[in-house]
């Protein structure tokens, strides 16, 4: 069944309706069995319209603008029940369980911050895993697993240095399993999550065996193989990456947010606070009846990488609007320029699971491997330290030459163009010459436009791009002013435009939840705003005096 052919799905199914025998729930007023449900959220049932009307003044406070539906292909997921405004907060959620990333450098199991390098690694006196202070040994995060990890009396599993290791993958899995006795309602949530364990048993058998050895042999626990595989699958399919106060990446499982399905063109934006609280908001205006979606992969990687991540980790083939459009909605993010005819870009042709690329104008065909190899070659070139020259005086010329070269091979909204633009901005970061500032502003403008195409609406990425662009524009304006290279009326207009841009950045970032990375940046935007206002005031005053 396609994702948009849905069946209503109520989370409080109880018994058959007393009038028609269809499964439903208890009426929100009289509690008799009823199958009519609120069309807004689908969560409350009614025996008839009269009781629904009677309940509305009370229910409108809780009625969510989305409901849970399900389809055979896409499982359970959330769909808007009325129009959502861009920036509208849809829900907040709290993690059921939190733990380190699957692979991590030495991370403290108490506070989840990276452990600073020192001569000697501090180990938890209870379980011997690295920690950053003795206080963290008894922190609520680590306390429940410490005595279980301590069963590894020979310290086989605990990392003995701070080098990156995949041993940290075990921690979140163990913490989930321990919920069975510690927190039965959280455990029930984990057990209801999709896990694809049958497929995983085929594709990841060796890894699953190692996890089982760790839990049942090293820690002497007694979980069945099926249960372990289900939990491993639930974590891999549903955990989201969030940031700690010290900006370390960790993972968390959320009971409600995990119901958001995927699209490579998401319409919903997530922001998490350092205490793990997650806010979900509409990034763009969303009509009624639309699937609410986030992107499970980065939106800034080529189509083949997105497809591999989605099929290997989430076991589905993405058929979102971006993946189904051969030009990726006009940006040619993954396709090269046709080597034969100028102005055309190759488009992917899918045939029985294979991809080849073809020019819509001259029909030249290129193998998928060649298209990917061209991208890999460029990535290798970019990784070479001297690709854009040193930070000395000739950086600018090399950046300009490189941007020209990349546009010979790719569309100026291609993935490789984006990488070159980002590397160029980094390379030119200390060049305060007017020409470099103008180029940096142009690149930020192009990047901000590209990000808007990849992740439309009020997102943190957009807010950050506007802040960067605004900061460069202010430097450029100050340099132009110092060089007396200005026409005042236009200059003042440009400064007012800059103020508006920074106000948009401030507004966008302040939509993020309090305690998040986005919110932290608001203070930085405010500083730029007052600097710009002061500069505008002083220039305006000078213009008035010289009249
Ligand atoms: C985090 S869960 C989302 C909730 C899930 N639909 C459920 O029923 O529990 C991720 C899983 O949902 C399914 N899914 C998510 N987005 C999808 C999409 N666009 N098309 C098909 N399946 C999708 C896949 O099975 C994926 O592994």
Structural class: alpha+beta
Overall residue-averaged pLDDT value = 92
Q: Indicate the radius of gyration in whole angstroms.
A: 27 Å
In DSSP terms (H or I, runs of 4 or more residues), the helix count works out at: 17
Number of domains: 4
In total, the number of strands is 18
Query: Main beta sheet, described?
Result: 3 strands, antiparallel
User: Share of helix among residues?
Assistant: 40-55%
State the shape.
globular
Task: Output the strand order for the largest sheet.
Answer: 1-6-7
Structure ligands: S-adenosylmethionine
Distance between the termini: 72 Å
Strand content: 5-15%
Keywords:
single chain, 547 residues, alpha+beta, Beta-clip-like, 4 domains, 3-stranded antiparallel beta sheet, 17 helices, binds S-adenosylmethionine
